[in-house]
């Protein structure tokens, strides 16, 4: 694979991001939509190459940044595809009904949707910002408003703690995570790692 080629492999994403994406894809397919993963991990070399298009290299501009969450293994470009005139066609339209359904499902799993950005909206783009490429858990210092909200809702669902799902990870969220973890006799470190996330969403 050339280092400017596009990567579609889910396995190249951060392990936490993989769990969330796989859950979302299951729900997307269950609602009758055929999702197309356009891109997952992107090397910095490819990001720089994309940035050069329409600038130092001839072509149309395709990106506005050299700093992308794709390089941090926490972003996915995802669109619906369906048969149009007998041909499977990717739908690149933020107003499309299936696109909107994908956006709603992805947000439910803690992804920030590029479609909702007020400046330069990026409809196929979904990301988990503020979490490193190699991070093994979400926690008070390693999260963002969308992930925190998803975790608060999952905790409310599983252990009926009545957390306010405000997306702010305070002491009540940490306490609830520890109550949840204690059920499995896991160390009460206030973190949601791979196993905790699987149990929370299972
Ligand atoms: Zn993207």
TrEMBL record:
Gene3D superfamilies: 3.30.1380.10, PGBD-like superfamily/PGBD (1.10.101.10). It comes from the Bacteria. CDD domains: L-Ala-D-Glu_peptidase_like (cd14845). InterPro entries: Peptidase_M15C, Peptidoglycan-bd-like, PGBD-like_sf, PGBDSf, Zn_M74/Hedgehog-like. Residues 65-128 form the Peptidase M15C domain. This is Putative peptidoglycan binding domain-containing protein. GO terms for molecular function: peptidase activity. It comes from Anaerosporobacter mobilis DSM 15930. Residues 150-200 form the Peptidoglycan binding-like domain. It holds the Pfam family PG_binding_1.
């Amino acid at each position: 694979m050339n280092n400017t080629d596009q990567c579609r492999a889910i396995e190249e994403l951060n392990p936490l991001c993989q769990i969330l994406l796989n859950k979302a894809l299951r729900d997307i397919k269950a609602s009758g939509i055929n999702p197309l993963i356009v891109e997952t991990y992107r090397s910095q070399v490819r990001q720089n190459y994309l940035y050069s298009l329409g600038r130092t290299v001839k072509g149309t501009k395709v990106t506005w940044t050299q700093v992308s969450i794709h390089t941090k293994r926490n972003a996915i470009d995802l669109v619906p595809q369906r048969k149009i005139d007998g041909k499977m066609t990717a739908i690149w339209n933020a107003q499309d009904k299936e696109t909107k359904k994908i956006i709603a499902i992805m947000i439910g799993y803690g992804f920030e949707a590029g479609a909702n950005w007020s400046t330069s909206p990026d409809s196929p783009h979904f990301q988990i910002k503020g979490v490193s490429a190699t991070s093994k858990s979400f926690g008070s210092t390693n999260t963002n408003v969308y992930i925190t909200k998803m975790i608060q809702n999952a905790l409310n669902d599983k252990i009926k703690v009545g957390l306010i799902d405000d997306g702010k990870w305070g002491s009540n969220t940490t306490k609830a995570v520890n109550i949840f973890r204690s059920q499995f006799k896991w160390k009460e470190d206030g973190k949601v790692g791979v196993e905790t996330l699987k149990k929370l969403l299972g």
